[in-house]
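Lecture notes, unit on binding sites. The following record was shown on slide 14. It pairs a sequence with S-adenosyl-L-homocysteine.
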Amino acid sequence: MSKKLSVNPLPVKKNDVIDVNIEDLTHEGHGVGKVDGYPLFIPNALTGERVQVKVLKTTKKFGFGRVMDWHKKSTDRVEPPCPVYDRCGGCQLQHLSYEGQLAAKQKQVQDVMARIGKLPDVPVHPTIGMEEPWRYRNKSQVPVGLSEGRVITGFYAKRSHEIVDVNQCIIQDQVSDQVMQIVKEKANELGIQPYDEASHKGVLRHVVIRRGRTSGEVMVVLVTRTKKIPYEAELVTALKEQIEGLASIIHNINAEKTNVIMGESSNVLWGSEVIYDSIGDIRFAISARSFYQINPVQTEVLYKKALEYAELTGEESVVDAYCGIGTISLFLAQKAKKVYGVEIVEQAIEDAKKNAELNGIHNAEFEAGPAEEVIPAWHKEGKKADVIVVDPPRKGCDEALLQTILEMKPKRVVYVSCNPGTLARDLRVLEDGGYHTVEVQPVDMFPQTSHVECVAWLESSLS
Ligand code: SAH
């Protein structure tokens, strides 16, 4: 005889229309409303609102809904200034005032510190925001497509590869709008075909635009499937004539069927191979494919905080794990005896070495490889660290790296993180191993989006 399963019925089902209070915001910027404890995630609903919701989907543990009407709106709700906000996938919080965004990000960090880090009392400071939280991005990667026979440029719609035609993106540097306009006009006038993902035919795939904030120098990268760009000279002339500060036009070839934007091969069509920018006193050379922080204003704020937490006197040996092109390492090297940077991408390490040279910094060494292998090897060799700085990708630090930190026993750990959840998880490991989290500082690197960046300061409990 088959045993009868007892099914716990959910309090709502698909297509129900119900009223809920919004109690919280998720890390994706969705409102959370609960029905008998069952959470519904509701885009475009804000904490403190009472909304009428249509249930779109249910799973065992949570469901999704759409706002049909507002019974009560948040006083923090604002009109999103971008006309394509509801279709484009780029921003998630334009409907929330900037003060509201900063407060929501602080709360999100506090919540995960308590829930995941078991650190309910750790001080999480108010998020440091931008004076002008628009037009802050120094890099845009714009897909090119075709709509009703016309070439369009824009951004991908939420969770899709359909291109939303955009004439301006107000979180990007103005120059991005100008370049998009020129490329669109010229492609339409001359008949340059956009790339078509489905058939893997056509020419122009993406336009990547970068500007050095302090230098004003602009780089335009034209990414094509083909080895040649038809009407290349006309395109180059139009950009040269109209773009102020243009310093570099690069052609990148990407013949693969892939979501990766740039291919392996690049050549200079006009101007120089790199543009320059500075963060604090450090200058960086940026090539078409180098990684570089996209919000240089807030990067400086973040690194100054990291430097403050590191409390360097000039005598310390510092390890910078996940160092990228050496941005933090070079910042720290000015105040430390020696800095050792490690990063998995070899090209980034090459850039880090060049950047050290460019700035006349001789007390920074870099090694390519996984931090969780290179740092244990350094430890075995007898290398010491007074301070360890980590800045891992979203998945956080590798367990083996955390264990090595506990074995190396630096006096201080500074943890820079783009994901509060994995930060809280890793802080718990370090706390259990003898460190004390003094404080956490969220910094708003990505205004209008739901991303949160933090820097945490830990001291060894032994010292
Ligand atoms: N600190 C740098 C970059 C931080 S982004 C800056 O501020 O600019 C995180 C970096 O970690 C990326 O450059 C990525 O390539 C690198 N990375 C990812 N996994 C890694 C690993 N296992 N070991 C070392 N570096 C890694």
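Take-home: The CA atoms of residues 133 and 447 lie 6 Å apart.
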